[in-house]
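Step 1: inspect the first sequence and its tokens.
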Amino acid sequence: MTNIQAADRRIASVNPATGEVLRQFDSASEAEVHAAVLRARTAQPEWDELGVGKRAAILQAFQHNLHEHKSEVARLITSEAGKPVVEALLTEVLVVLDATRFCIENAYGILREQPVPHRNLAMKTKSGRLTREPYGVIGIISPWNYPLSIPATETLAALVAGNAVVLKPSELTPQCALRLAK
């Protein structure tokens, strides 16, 4: 790889209000993306085996952490996406906190096994059930304009359902994705 090609792989997180470079990142190579998907695929069965209760408890810890750091997260969104702090709090942080609450409160009801009745008299002695199983690895490609709320709400729903997630954030707001991962 030449220096020019290596330089092309750098992404700068830039404050849109000031033009200040906040941080620079290396883009993931194709091999690094494949490795991330493989790690997610390897981890997913163990994540699913935790069960809904433990996954919901982990979401609750995430919710608590986000609530404790909501102002810091809103300022990060402001510096990287250009939203006013109040808008970042209302349309990003509070939306994620509410989505987390929804996932925690409704995970059992949505994911529980449900009986499926047979209406045919010849099948009266048979029973059926509807079970929900995770897909496995979910890939999320996130936009810049809602750099926390869109990837977080999609990630939370996938995780509580037992899936692993690989997130590709917008190249304009990579720090918001790093904060979400933290």
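Step 2: inspect the second sequence and its tokens, then contrast the two.
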Amino acid sequence: MVVDEALAGRERFPRLLLDGDDAYDAMVTDIPDISLAISTADCLPIFLVDPQRPAVGAVHAGWRSSVQGIVEHILRQMQDAYGTNPTECYVAIGPGIRGCCYEVDEPVVTPLRRAWSQWEACVKPAGQERWMLDLARLNTAILHGQGIREDRIFDTGLCTACRSDLFYSYRAEKPKTGRMISLIALKQ
């Protein structure tokens, strides 16, 4: 979703984003001083910055949206809306569940296998039809495929499940857990 002046000027913005039937797992803006927020409790917050335009993007990357190519989608939105060149972007990957703790089964791996030919690079076998999925590795590989250089991707490397003393983790603390809010904004 592109957060432009028209959307930002609507009555009840930003609350109206929560009231609709649409899910906003990715947003972009070039408006200074408007924060894009991502709520997570194991999914990855991923932030993109185009310093040339300037513009920013925020992505909530769970397994479904990652498999569906949400980082590719947000880069296309930035290209279409602002003329962003992905090779000039910087990316930050925040805390989220990592391959050390994210055990998944066939209903997760089947769509991954269908969507991404190099799916085995982001999983490790964990038993009969079980895998450890590394969402950060998957999204990093997709970002590389879009032309973003390795030296422009900054990953905290922090696992929310391993570090539930610092972060909320749905997997580690369910059913009682909170949510983290991560923000990005352009400065005026």
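Step 3: confirm your contrast with the notes below.
Residues 70-82 form the longest helix (13 residues). The domain at 2-97+135-184 is CATH 3.60.140.10 (CNF1/YfiH-like putative cysteine hydrolases).
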